[in-house]
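User: Structure please.
Assistant: Input sequence and predicted structure:
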Amino acid sequence: MQFGIFTVGDVTPDPTSGAVPTEAERIKAMVAIALKAEEAGLDVFATGEHHNPPFVPSSPTTMLGYIAARTERLILSTATTLITTNDPVKIAEDFAMLQHLADGRVDLMMGRGNTGPVYPWFGKDIRDGIPLAIENYHLLHRLWREDVVDWEGRFRTPLQSFTSTPRPLDGVPPFVWHGSIRSPEIAEQAAHYGDGFFANHIFWPKEHFQRLIGLYRQRFEHYGHGSADQAIVGLGGQVFMRKNSQDAVREFRPYFDNAPVYGHGPSLEEFTAETPLTVGSPQQVIEKTLSFRDHFGDYQRQLFLMDHAGLPLKTVLEQIDMLGEEVVPVLREEFEALRPAHVPAGPPTHASRLTEEVR
């Protein structure tokens, strides 16, 4: 099973000090977080894609390429690649290039994002969100698997005898996740292709995501990719830890109360009761994360959001050390002990997919 960090790259004032990082400082902080993730023994670093303030990661492959040069083992991913507003030809080229630079340590997560105005900024109509996601990914899927593509669709100019370059490393495309917080069409799409489905269930109660994941598993089996419990599922989560749970709550509360995404709404106590957010001791994080299996079944990737809401970089790095030293080793052991032998332990990697291609 893979464990890692994902970031949305927000530039948010620290509510306890008023300090606001510059864009350069925030970008460098994201790199430092990725390097710490590898040092702490985590498996994955994933960055979001945003094109509006207060976010900075507008070019994920640029950042991930830089991180690739400074790491050896870390899997480099996106927490969102905007399949709706990016040209699928450019996605095919950019991530194949990143594959080569990172020696295959690459996958990506398709999504539609959460910023409506991004559509007209890139010449698209938000009312076409789902059809764009479906058509653009169909083209991307072909571009990575066919050397010469003829294409005509609704949303871009036709392609005639087109070859995207470079070709995927070793002829094996990056593994793809489809991320969604509300759309059954995306769960269906992930199942159709036999790709992974990532439920970033950090804001909504578990029942909502149980329905989406249940649909994905059912349709994964329907399309003949394996049994429902063999479907490749990833989950998001949020944690803040201190040795003493009261200290964790006291320290994190001002960040929670003022966070752009959920501040000034439900209380911290209400939010932790209804969502995966865990604020407490490492043991409480272990117990809450293990409960995800009870809700969603065996799954293959767990990513944590830890650097949002203005938290200082020093604090985030401390959190990652605690995650790597005190939480993830226990989770690995416990999840592995519970997993049936026929269920994949982790998602496909470049090495495992290359082996499969050879067979």
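The first strand starts at residue 2 and ends at 7.
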